[in-house]
């Protein structure tokens, strides 16, 4: 997928039933990771927490309420798991057009997102995998 700067990996999204329980269970591996604030994202129906070791960024996601977009995934994967890879792109609309032209499917159209300072995000499936596209700051 060509992009002026080229898409860059922003983070890896992991859906979990409970962020607190996941962090306790994974303390041995993730205990030294820096943690961002816990975000209640009403628009997306999730609670989210970003972790980083200074190189990689993980986004932990848990349902905020019944009917969350994570519900179906967590019913199939009771302990959670990788749900998406997120990429920075220059223009989210143009990136979605390229994904559709390559046979992908748009899952959600661009919306402003609180976790990314109101930059627009969208979700698409390409090659059977869910990708989150995050528009770079302009």
Structural write-up:
- With 138 residues, the chain is of the alpha+beta class.
- It has one domain (8-135): 2,3-Dihydroxybiphenyl 1,2-Dioxygenase, domain 1 (Roll), CATH 3.10.180.
- Helix content is 20%, strand content 42%.
- It is built from 4 helices and 9 strands.
- Strands 1, 2, 3, 4, 5, 6, 7, 8 and 9 form a 9-stranded mixed beta sheet that branches.
- A hairpin with a 4-residue loop joins β4 (46-52) and β5 (57-63).
- The chain starts with 7 loop residues before the first strand and ends with a strand.
List the helices and strands and how they pair.
Elements: E1 8-15, H1 19-25, H2 27-30, E2 34-35, E3 39-41, E4 46-52, E5 57-63, H3 71-76, E6 81-89, H4 92-101, E7 105-112, E8 120-126, E9 129-135
Parallel strand pairs: 1-5, 6-9
Antiparallel strand pairs: 1-6, 2-4, 3-4, 4-5, 7-8, 8-9
Low-confidence stretches: none
Radius of gyration: 15 Å
Largest sheet: 9 strands, mixed
Helix fraction, binned, reads: 10-25%
Determine the CATH superfamily.
2,3-Dihydroxybiphenyl 1,2-Dioxygenase, domain 1
Order of secondary-structure elements? EHHEEEEHEHEEE
For the structure shown, list the relevant keywords.
single chain, 138 residues, alpha+beta, 2,3-Dihydroxybiphenyl 1,2-Dioxygenase, domain 1, nine-stranded mixed β-sheet, 4 helices, 9 strands, globular
Summarize this entry quickly:
This protein has 138 residues and is of the alpha+beta class.
């Amino acid at each position: 997928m060509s992009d002026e700067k080229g898409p860059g990996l922003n983070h890896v999204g992991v859906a979990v039933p409970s962020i607190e329980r996941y962090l306790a269970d994974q303390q041995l591996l993730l205990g030294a990771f820096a943690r961002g604030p816990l975000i209640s994202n009403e628009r997306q129906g999730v609670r989210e927490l970003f972790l980083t070791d200074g190189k990689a960024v993980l986004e932990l996601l848990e349902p905020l309420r019944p009917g969350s977009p994570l519900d179906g995934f967590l019913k199939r994967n009771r302990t959670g798991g990788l749900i998406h890879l997120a990429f920075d792109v220059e223009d989210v609309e143009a990136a979605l057009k390229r994904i559709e032209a390559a046979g992908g499917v748009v899952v959600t159209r661009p919306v402003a997102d609180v976790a990314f300072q109101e930059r627009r995000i969208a979700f698409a499936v390409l090659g059977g995998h869910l990708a989150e596209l995050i528009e770079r700051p302009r």
